[in-house]
Amino acid sequence: MGLIRLFLILFFIYAVYNFVFKVIVPLAARSFVNKAQQDMQERMRQMQDQQRKPEGEINVSKKSKGNEGEYVDYEEVK
Length: 78
Description:
Blueprint: H1 2-51
């Protein structure tokens, strides 16, 4: 009776192992990959939206010439 019980327990463990690695793990991996793909697509979409330049009025302002520093003329040394 003990030997049959041992074989039944081993068969049950084997069946659970096969079920987990043939059904559960691929489903979890597929879910993980799909989520990562959706996140990456959303990031790409946001980057593309940020890179688009808005149409409309453009203002260009120049720096003031008050404090540009001193001009130094360098001579080439041979």
